[in-house]
Amino acid sequence: xxxxxxxxxxxxxxYMNNIRIAVENEIEGMSxxxxxxDIGELCNYFAEKHxxxxxxxxxxxxxxxxxDSPYARIVMLKCYIPFKGDASLFHVSGGSxxxxxxxxxxxxxxxxxxxxxxxxxxxxxxxKMADFIRTVNDGLNSLRDSVSRWKGQIPGWAAQKINTRKxxxxxxxxxxxxxSNIVPLRKRDDGTEKVVVPVQxxxxxxxPAQKSAMEPELPMTAYDDILKTIQAMVHVFERSPTVSKxxxxxxxxxxxxxxxxxxxxxxxxxxxFNGAGKTDILVRYEDRNVxxxxxxxWEGAAALRSKMDDQLFTYATxxxxxxxxxxxxxxxxxxxxxxxxxxxxxAHPLCVSQLRLDHLSGARYKFRRKDDPQREFTLTCLAFDVxx
Length: 388
Hints:
The protein is 40% helix and 23% strand. With 388 residues, it is α+β, with helices and mostly antiparallel strands. The two termini are 36 Å apart.
């Protein structure tokens, strides 16, 4: 059954505030060398990275062939309206929130709607679809007006944070210089110097698909590279809990997408349709899925098992072979959470074996698909302590 969530999940204020947080956190992770560029160029980079592309509906639509029901008086038709733009913005509300009673949802780059049509009056479909499209466009136009007011602020947010970051780095550099005149300093080696999000996006570390192979596999080195990027960003949260204390699961995921898109040339998306549902994080490379992850805030073993069975394993298609579960702990016994996470995942009936993973709060397993036991995939579970 369809349920309409158009323009109802999030306000444009919250949506843009998440972008502001993402921009500020990316700048916070940049080094002095990264920031030693023309500030206008840097601000334009962040504005282009977050285009806030409000969808534009096509004037034409199509419908599925009606079912064989010659004695029915009413037929339910599923119609498809193509659109261009960011699909996630269908769930953001602008200044007004139009009431949409028709069952609809977003599927890829189509807005789908189910319409009841009487067998003796098929022309009624045109009227109902025209009313629906007009209502949706009212919501999109209101959102577009709000975006136009908000969008121009992104360079300003970036400029303010860049200047703040530069000043902080300058003070730190001056302090180190003065301190070095008093006492010899040893170089730090605690990993903090490695948390850098590149301004210039680099190609994904994946080899071209082998045309001779039946189904190319994502190399473990590339899989680990993606996970290390996620770990580096989350470690910023762990070291600076005040930055993320008010963030929910969706906000934390948004920050991770910033890092992944910075590394993989825009290939990481959130709430992307894939398989039987919507994944939290999906990385595509050369038009194929190479990495799928689900995020959750720890609420117990039952919730974790549900996340695996009802979402991650359901959303992953037969071709998806590299999956991940990202567990965020908020103010619970972290050691206990890690142990319960490992026990729950390892005891899953589809788990074949545990694989080696050098990570204090993670684990890696080999799983088989429920619908095809001969097809196996790798699942990595990582837990992070992100207190409120």
